[in-house]
Amino acid sequence: MASIAVALSKDLPNGRVMRAIVSEQDLVVWRSKSGILSAWENRCPHRGMRLSHGFVRGEALACMYHGWHYDKSATCRYIPAHPELEPPETIRAQEFSSIEKGGLIWVSVDGSLEEPLIDENLTPLRSINFQCASKTVQEVITKSTKLAGDTDPFNFTTKAAGYHHWVLFSEKKELNLHLFFHELPNNACKIHALIDKDCPAQIQKQISRMMESWRRSAETDYEVSAK
Amino acid sequence: MSFTLYDYALSGNCYKIRLFANILNIDYERIAVEFYPGADHRSEKMLAISPAGTLPILTTDDIVLSETSAMLFWIARNYDAPDHWWPEQDLTAQANILQWMGFSSDLTATIGQGRLHALFQTPIDKDKMIKGGRAALRKIEAHLSEQSFDGCSFLTGNKPTIADIACFPYVALSPDVGANIGFDHDDYPAIRNWIYAMKSLDGFIPMPGIYAMHELKDHEIDYGSQKSAKAGASK
Ligand SMILES: N[C@@H](CCC(=O)N[C@@H](CS)C(=O)NCC(=O)O)C(=O)O
Ligand code: FES
Known about the structure:
The complex is a heterodimer. Chain A is mainly beta. Chain A contains 2 helices and 15 strands. Chain A has helices at 134-147, 201-218; strands at 4-8, 17-22, 25-31, 37-41, 55-57, 60-62, 69-70, 76-78, 95-101, 104-108, 123-130, 156-161, 165-170, 175-184, 188-195. In chain A, strands 1-10-9-4-3-2 form a 6-stranded antiparallel beta sheet, with no helix packed on it. The radius of gyration of chain A is 20 Å and the shape is elongated. Chain B has helices at residues 12-23, 44-49, 68-78, 91-120, 126-149, 162-173, 189-199, and strands spanning 4-7, 29-32, 57-59, 64-65. Mean pLDDT of chain B is 92; it is low at 226-235. In chain B, helix 4 (91-120) runs parallel beside helix 6. Chain B has 2 domains: 4-81, Glutaredoxin, CATH 3.40.30.10; 85-217, Glutathione S-transferase Yfyf (Class Pi), Chain A, domain 2, CATH 1.20.1050. Chain B contains 7 helices and 4 strands. Classes of the chains: A mainly beta, B mainly alpha. At the A-B interface, strand 2, strand 11 and helix 2 of A face helix 5 and helix 7 of B. The complex binds glutathione (GSH) and FE2/S2 (inorganic) cluster. Residues 11-13, 41, 54-55, 67-68, 105, 108 of chain B line the site of glutathione (GSH).
């Protein structure tokens, strides 16, 4: 199932940590102070705390609970309660492959990280969450592009519709909008959206609001469901 | 002239005032009031000071305030805070600030109530709270995304204002309300970036549930910082 885009690169600056989920696999994705990207199982080998609650300490990720430090190879290197101890090499978090390309962070959880084919000159827009399956969102997009007439500021047409990657094209604005679908558990998904050239902030806002309008249509059954 | 703050450590609303006063390096008198379980904020003694029956309360010889928005404004003006906190000459900025100060009370009414329920089992309409809280988080996420298109990191521009202080606590505290109700920050990258910017301010202080980034003793070992590594999206 190859590589899945989990975030826009700009939303994970150096020294920051985030959580991501790919095919039910809970992940911590983090970037060291010098910029090295890692994606691991979101579970501290010590007591199982979510590592996504942790802090970046230079080139290491420190667990929030007891502060164990893991280096870029996911190996535990420092245990604050035993500062003199050199931790055994066997204490490691489970690593997954990750790569950065075209302004996106890609993760593979099945060991098959392929170089994603993507234009390197895209401008990141935003990641937006939907409480419905990506199929539902795709149906809404198809319908709304069909309905959009000449008065629509973009009048997008669907140029490519792969499983995870859609490209909408606006002839009016000569603009490609790239949508990367990221399926989540419990009937939810995200879109990581990018545009293919520097476009004015005003247009970015319009597209951002258009995505919210898709969401309002797609989530008609987003009822309160505190499980 | 200094002021007195009637304060409760676990209150996000009280934290707004402690945070802003600390950022501006202001000395003030703090009187702790037992909100729970004593409900001392509704004692006759406290109601005599402020009939609103809520915390925080800010008092001086001349003034008694029970709305945090009014307190933040009063502190900014009275202590001559750097202009970006309340841009004196900029009507548009002021109007935008008031807009988000108004929004901050939606946060108290939804996420704030949800948190009181999580902490003290205060009765609430849970469905209404969850729907309202999600809507509020999505609204601020969308706005902060739009701000980022303009290259701005804060609610009304590229410097923080009292609107950021007013909205920050309950947005930052939302994950404490509960899991799987859409209040986690995982789905809100723009909110995460903004929280990071707020925590990076000089004079930032934590409260229970809002930790400082460098709270843990800084322990940095150079495990090989691969200078050749892509610089990534460093700011
Ligand atoms: N309007 C006030 C509201 C403050 C508020 O709601 N405070 C809570 C504590 S965080 C409170 O005192 N609630 C009264 C109660 O629950 O008895 C403000 O913006 O400061
Ligand atoms: S659970 Fe991570 S250090 Fe203990």
